[in-house]
């Protein structure tokens, strides 16, 4: 029974922590997975990762990065060119989709238009030759889980997008699959419904303790609900980490840019740890040979902005630079400032309630940020 | 009144006249079929259902009509049975030469039927296929298969995305996917392809003209010979019946799938 | 696991044998009644014909030589092309206003009128041709109307006039369909835009509507021309045997004279005309783009 499988109570597990090692065993393993079409460069290559039982992994990346192909390889809809897929230690690489026992939620839901909601959900049970009475009971329970019992006799086209989405989820879960695969399940919903649905998906996934892979191009979505995130680019896995780690310590400039807004500064490392950017000398974490060309990255909301009229803010090892406000954009819950800092233009984001005052175009200001918030990458590694 | 109205009215009259021109030959068949005259004349000197009575006694035309219906049904069933697996393969399976095969299979549509009819006649004559049911069915299939294949291929291509994949991941084997998901969703395309195959076969004159024999006559050819040799209103009553039968078939298809969809898929 | 296992292909449940088995029936029909007969037809045009419909052994270009040196066949060829061009032009003239009008209707009426315009296609060519015999015959509808107006009607049936009138009407649905497909791409806001820029209605038509509908127009003309060249039933019945076109001559040679090599060569000639029409269409399409 699906509902009884939960290893921990609903909503208890902290979002950003991977399930504790040792408690949960490895459930899904991808080994050097590769997909090629003809002589084209591989759509996916050298992709290896392990998922623990009950873990929700987000596969994140721009369109065409290979994340959907990866999902389709796991489900068996696309044959792999090389590599292995193991579920609970069993090699399923050669199995056709109908013998893989995976629940898939498709981007456009792929509900059978000629069947009612209940018939859609019952289809997988019917294929498994589950008795009619048991199937009926399980269908109603699955529909109850997504709060759609009352719509059981409707046809899919009579449902709203969010309702169709929930039917697709119920249909994928009712067969108690070993793994749940979600292919951009929220991309066809409007913004408000999207937030609601993603939390619902997360709640159900945690309640059932089911191992799941969630493909998306929306980093906010992935960060919000996933235990870990794998960022893909051009068929390769760039980094796999918890959302927090991904945000704070991105492995590459591409990942840094993809998971949030970034200021880019080009500089050269000096003797003694400083970095020259234009006229200024900044402090950044990390060490390296002097003369090395560097790319510095700072998140806009980690920069503190103060009026130049008041005293220069306490340095205390922070980077403090003078600048001039060039543009102010009000975006509702925040203000975006473009600030000229030497030859560079910095984007600064400040909450509309945090500061005692806002700034106007032409204001002279100080920008201050911590070296810990300054990411350094060797130049030439950016996207 | 503004200056636009006069050209507007003239344009409306023009369009109305052209529509009358387009529909006149079909519509005029109905009044003439009730003519009491022995020959085609307008206006008829009197009205009478005598030509419908005559039609019911015209055993040769009735036999040809029966033959045409049987032929159309056989050809329709065979067209669907042959074109459906072919369409599934040509749309779903990628293999070298797939596009070329599709073009070859639909190429008979491009050939004038007078050329195709002659070509088929020449190979049929030496093999005793002229005037035979087998030869007639084969020749009609040449014409109906391209239509059926195109309509079914379009139907397959416009299936809702990923439903077949979804059925597979839910545990359905390929044949079960086809039976439970693909086939029911293709019902409109199957109806359209079937109706089109029947109409094409039922209406085909030129190819049949080459292949008919004394033992096997079909309605369009018999009507053609009748019109060629006699000019009485009998054909009008036959035509009226044919038009009404066609109309009935079209309404059935329209109810099931929508005519524009069916015809558009075939174009 | 071994390297061989890593590259093992997934079990393919739609193998090559299945593929062949499912394509075999359509392939068989295609080869038996299309490819083989057409190739046979082309080859037959290089054989000689003997008395009583016999075909002589050995390849010869005699059929082609006599065909291409006989002014009778040149007249048929040029006459067919000329008549078909005239029919195409008349069909376009009659179809364009109707198609433009239909394309301007609201969605519901447009669909209905489209069905009305293409409905004649569902009626057998024999029946529609018979309808024209009712209309054009000496005691028919049109001469009756002309007589009622106190004039002497010209002869309309069993001559070229009848064939041209009948084919124009019979081919109109194809032209209307092609034109409507072309008009489909025409955005009504473009005309409004031109209007706001100061263009008068006729200028809007000449500068915006006509150029944008040209691709559909060309396709319709190609289709109409090709169908006119290959039409047989209508010229045969409305021409009453007095109008000789390529298609009717093929039939007469094949069925009456039993000269199959000549009928085959004439068939190839029809295909050559098709090829030429396609080439002209291709050139004109390039010009339009």
Automatic annotation (TrEMBL), chain B:
Give the InterPro entries listed for this entry: MetI-like, MetI-like_sf
Annotated compartments: Cell inner membrane; Cell membrane
The residues covered by the ABC transmembrane type-1 domain are 65-253
Q: Which parts pass through the membrane?
A: 69-88, 100-124, 130-149, 189-213, 233-253
**Protein's UniProt keywords contain Transmembrane helix:** yes
How does this protein sit in the membrane?
Answer: Multi-pass membrane protein
Q: Does the keyword Metal-binding apply?
A: no
Where this protein primarily resides, as one coarse class?
Answer: membrane
Q: Which UniProt keywords apply?
A: Cell inner membrane, Cell membrane, Membrane, Transmembrane, Transmembrane helix, Transport
Q: Which Pfam families match?
A: BPD_transp_1 (PF00528)
Which family is annotated? Answer: Belongs to the binding-protein-dependent transport system permease family.
Can you name this protein?
A: ABC transporter permease
Give the organism the record lists. Answer: Teichococcus aerophilus
TrEMBL record, chain C:
Q: Which PROSITE patterns match?
A: ABC_TM1
**Pfam families of this UniProt entry?**
BPD_transp_1
Instruction: Give the stretches traversing the membrane.
Output: 18-39, 76-100, 112-136, 156-180, 208-233, 260-281
Which source organism? Answer: Teichococcus aerophilus
Q: Which residues form the ABC transmembrane type-1 domain?
A: 77-281
- Record-stated family: Belongs to the binding-protein-dependent transport system permease family. CysTW subfamily.
Q: Which Gene3D superfamilies match?
A: MetI-like
The name on file for this protein is ABC transporter permease
